[in-house]
Specification:
- The protein has six helices and no strands.
- By secondary structure, the chain is an all-alpha fold.
- The protein has two domains: 78 residues, no CATH class; 35 residues, no CATH class.
- α1 packs antiparallel against α2.
Length: 121
Amino acid sequence: MGENKIDILRKRWGFPLAIIFGMIVWFMPLGHGLTPQGHHALALFTGIFILYLTEAVPLAVTSIAVAPLAVLMGVAKIGPALSSFASSSLFLMFGAFILAAGMIETNLAKRLTYVIFPRSV
């Protein structure tokens, strides 16, 4: 199925618009009580928000790019920015999803279900 003109425009112009609006926010005067670090975070949020709306870049790539961009823009230090990727909860969930996918692919999930809940004849 072909894409309509709106989808083509949004994907073609999403990335340049994200950069343009991010730069506009970056060079705007600081608001009252807003630190430079907070101002840079607002510029990053603006660009990422536009990328999410337009889907010019795949959502997974956009999501993973937030941490390195935050470090490059001076919003966060590298340790705290990447610490959530090393969370034990994250690895627990990731491992569970991989196990579940493997169990479904090999029909092990179905076989275990029949062991736990035998069919009544």
